[in-house]
Design goal:
Distance between the termini: 26 Å
Shape: globular
CATH superfamily of the largest domain: ATPase, nucleotide binding domain
Largest sheet: 5 strands, mixed
Helix content: 25-40%
Bound molecules: zinc ion
CATH class of the largest domain: Alpha Beta
Strand order of the largest sheet: 3-2-1-4-8
Number of domains: 2
CATH topology of the largest domain: Nucleotidyltransferase, domain 5
Low-confidence stretches: 1-15, 147-171, 357-368
Number of strands: 13
């Protein structure tokens, strides 16, 4: 077990309001857990490095849950557990398939953890829980675009809290008819999570939001899914690594080189900026959400990423009254880099487990 890394927001001394929600984000490099009370206050957090394989992921998840409960002390009352994990997830049955980076081909994770802990467990795809966590954040914790891309105004605004008005904004989030939020995960891959009225949308086969494998890009780079020209090949962390190779975190270097006049860097930056803007347009035109949040590892670039995407959205708007009428930059936000939004989202998703029937947890093999 690794050393405890309490989150700055964590407050183990606070009075616990209502049932406890435990959220565990099982990622490729770390497993991060949070405990929240009924008012969404974070009570405790803990993280450990990820180990691969069914048994290791199961063991570490149960250990982390028990550690969080220990941190809270006695008299915790009722608790629910939400787990977020990459791969294909059957949320109703708690089954995970093809979590390749975790060395899991098939695993009945939800039933196994429910049996070990005696707690109701809900399992969701990692992008979906990050979407739920990001969508739960108030307007003032999400970063809004600068008013003028690549301008001093944009850079000034990045240093102000998003709730504080800038020269021309940031603009308030638009009114929502049915509270639809889209979360575009710019991680190793590209996928979107859709939250409608506080609940994760799953679609018929669980493929909702898999926009990374829409083959639309005219560069026609080969994709690991077998197609060419997938959006993921130009709008993801792996795309940045492929197009600007040789650097561990290519985007900050790419943006810096481009701003210093490096022509090749500008070309690559344009490819990536156009690709992410295309992802935003696809989500906007298919789901029409009031808010589109950029998250995932690439979002840690911060304001320069928002500026880049806004610039490319404005380019599309300049040649299309229709696109201009959608006011996409107004809907764009960046997920906060300093909050474990995926683990928070897992905790919120876990509350749904309290409504699950016991029969949902029949079939209790860890491995298969
Ligand atoms: Zn693909």
């Amino acid at each position: 077990m690794a050393a405890s890394t309490p989150h700055p927001e964590a407050d183990t001394d606070s009075v616990q309001a209502g049932p406890i929600s435990l959220g565990i984000d099982i990622g490729g490099t770390k497993i991060e857990g949070v405990a929240m009370d009924g008012d969404k206050h974070m009570l405790a957090s803990f993280r450990i490095p990820t180990r691969e394989g069914n048994q290791a992921v199961y063991d570490d998840t149960v250990t982390l849950i028990r550690h969080l409960l220990d941190q809270l002390g006695p008299n915790q009352g009722t608790a629910t557990v939400g787990l977020g994990i990459p791969g294909r997830v059957d949320a109703n049955r708690g089954i995970v398939d093809d979590a390749v980076n975790l060395g899991i081909r098939h695993m009945a994770l939800g039933p196994a953890v429910a049996r070990a802990t005696g707690l109701p467990v809900r399992v969701e795809n990692d992008v979906n829980i990050a979407a739920l966590g990001a969508a739960s954040q108030a307007d003032d914790t999400l970063v809004a675009p600068g008013t003028t891309p690549h301008s001093e105004a944009a850079r000034d605004q990045s240093r102000r809290p998003a709730s504080e008005p800038g020269r021309d904004g940031p603009r308030a989030l638009p009114d929502q008819d049915d509270h639809v939020v889209a979360f575009i995960n710019l991680g190793t891959g590209l996928a979107a999570g859709i939250i409608r009225e506080g609940r994760i949308e799953h679609g018929a086969s669980g493929a909702i939001g898999e926009i990374g494998h829409i083959s639309v890009d005219d560069h026609q780079f080969p994709c690991k899914c077998g197609q060419c020209g997938c959006l993921e090949t130009v709008a993801s962390g792996s795309a940045a690594e492929a197009l600007w190779p040789g650097i561990a975190h290519p985007m900050p270097d790419l943006i810096a080189q481009a701003s210093q006049g490096n022509q090749h860097a500008q070309e690559v930056q344009d490819i990536i900026g156009h690709g992410i803007a295309l992802a935003v347009q696809i989500v906007a035109l298919t789901i029409d959400p009031a808010v589109i949040i950029l998250g995932g590892g690439m979002s840690k670039i911060g304001q320069p990423l928002l500026d880049l995407v806004t610039e490319h959205l404005n380019r599309s708007a300049a040649c299309s009254h229709f696109i201009a009428s959608l006011s996409l930059p107004d809907r764009l936000r960046l997920a906060p880099a300093d909050l474990p939004i995926a683990a928070i989202g897992a905790a919120l998703a876990g509350r749904m487990a309290a409504d699950s029937r016991p029969s949902d947890f029949i079939g209790k093999e860890i491995a298969s």
